[in-house]
Amino acid sequence: MANKQQIEKVMEMFSSATGLTAVYVDIDGKEISDDDQFPPVCQIMRQVPHLRKHCQKCAKCGGFETMKNGQPCIYRCHAGLADFAVPVKSRENTLYGFIISGQVRLEDDENQVKEFLQQKPLDLSYRHDFAAAYSKLPVFSLEKLSASAEVLSTLSAYYLPSILNEEEAKPAKEPAAQAKKHARSKKEIKQALKYIQKHIHQPVTLEEVAGHVYLSPYYFSKLFKKETGETFVSFVNRQKMNLAKDMLANDDLPVSYIAHSLGFREISYFSKVFKRYYQTTPTSYRAMSRKKG
């Protein structure tokens, strides 16, 4: 994975300054860093397959919430711990994954340990060290955790773009790769594709992207279709539906959350577009993919 050792040096700097652990994950929330970089309580949970999946899903959702908001987002993981994420991006805004940190209890969370341990099924009854590890997690105020998140965001923004040279490493995912082959000769279309990829989790309009590459909407629309082989709206929707398909098949996120995370304000319209591409509704597709799995 892209320049893992150099990224881990940035995480070590952050950990030395704040006392918090930091972990590098890909855009699906799956660990790139070694498991021993997690605090003991997280290591124990990740040894249980279904809890590990919950951990990965939390990391993924937290990362994309940060991308949508444009700033570090503090969130609760499934175990009730306070986490935050910052994106790992290149100079060209290609997303490689996220650095996840936190894994702390917040002040006034005295009942959090008891509530989590009472959940069923945890499959952790055989780990006598789990309750002790959970109780020994650091306790932060929300203000201190927010300040730590800003530190990691600042370090990442300063160091990571230069580390992640796109000529040296392949990105974790490149939704527009196929279209880029057709657009190689056109600088404006290359810039447009990168802009679309960066904002794929938001509503993206033709006028907005045309303005970004300093072309009139009419000329940009014609050029885009000539170079990519499809209309702007069709291309953007196809990229969004490809992401939606993966999320439906691999995650338990509500359809409404998936729709909103891809920039659709109305779930009914999201379902209509999805059905246009896959001849079935999002809910039916999820059910069929689970049966096949």
What do you see in this structure?
It is a single chain. The protein has helices at 4-18, 40-45, 49-69, 112-117, 130-135, 142-163, 177-183, 187-198, 206-212, 217-228, 232-250, 255-261, 267-278, 282-292, and strands spanning 22-26, 73-76, 82-89, 95-106, 139-140. Helices cover 56% and strands 11% of the residues. Strand 3 and strand 4 form a beta hairpin. It folds into two domains: 4-163, no CATH class; 177-292, Homeodomain-like (Arc Repressor Mutant, subunit A, Orthogonal Bundle). 33% of the residues are buried. The longest helix is centred in the middle third of the chain and has 22 residues, at 142-163. By secondary structure, it is an alpha+beta fold. The chain is built from 14 helices and five strands. The two termini are 27 Å apart. The chain is globular. Keywords: DNA-binding, Transcription, Transcription regulation. GO terms for molecular function: DNA-binding transcription factor activity; sequence-specific DNA binding. Residues 190-288 form the HTH araC/xylS-type domain. This is Ligand-binding sensor domain-containing protein.
Highlighted features:
293 residues, 2 domains, single chain, Arc Repressor Mutant, subunit A, 5 strands, 14 helices, globular, alpha+beta
Gross morphology is globular
In which range does the helix fraction lie? 55-70%
Beta-strand segment tally: 5
What class would the helix/strand composition place it in?
Answer: alpha+beta
Strand content: 5-15%
Name the helix and strand elements from N-terminus to C-terminus, one letter apiece. HEHHEEEHHEHHHHHHHHH
Give the number of helices.
14
**Average pLDDT for all residues:** 80
- Poorly predicted regions are 166-174, 178-185
How would you characterize the largest beta sheet? 5 strands, mixed
Number of domains: 2
